Fold this sequence. Notes:
Elements: H1 10-32, H2 59-69, H3 74-85, E1 92-93, E2 98-99, E3 104-105, H4 114-117, H5 120-132
Antiparallel strand pairs: 1-2, 2-3
Helix pairs in contact: 2-3, 2-5
Amino acid sequence: MTMKLKPPTPAFLFVFLWLLIASLLVLPLLLSGHSFAYEALGEESVKLTDKAAPPQEAPEALIRRLAREYGLDEDEMVKVAFCESSLNPSAIGDFGESVGLWQWRLKDHPEITRECALNAACSTQEAMKAIKSGKLWWWSCAK
Length: 143
C-alpha cells in the first residue's frame, strides 16, 4: 500500500521560504565572528573589544550644546537637523550625495570629509561654524 502525500499549503511554503532566506542571510553573520556594529555604509566591520566605548553625546544634546557655544538658536538648530536627517548621524540621502546628521553634500563641500560628515560632533561643529557665518541657507530645511 502506497501513501499519497498532499502538496504543501501556501502558508507552509511561505513560512518555509521565509525561514530559509532568513537563515541564509543571518547565519553567515553569526558564524563570521563580527559584531553587528558596522561603520558607515557597512564598509568594514568593527571588532568587539574588552574595553567599553566611551558614551557618545546624543545628537540633540550635542546640537543644543554647540548651538549655545556659537550663540545660535538651539531649537532652530535641532529643527533643521531633525528635518535633514531625523537626527541620525549615519543618514544617507539624495541617492548617496548627502551624508550625516546635517546631510552634507560632499561634492558641494570639499572641505568636509565623509568621515567628518558621518561623525556627529565633527559634522555639527562644521555646521555651526557655517551657520554662524551666515550660511544657514545651505540647508533646505532652514527655508
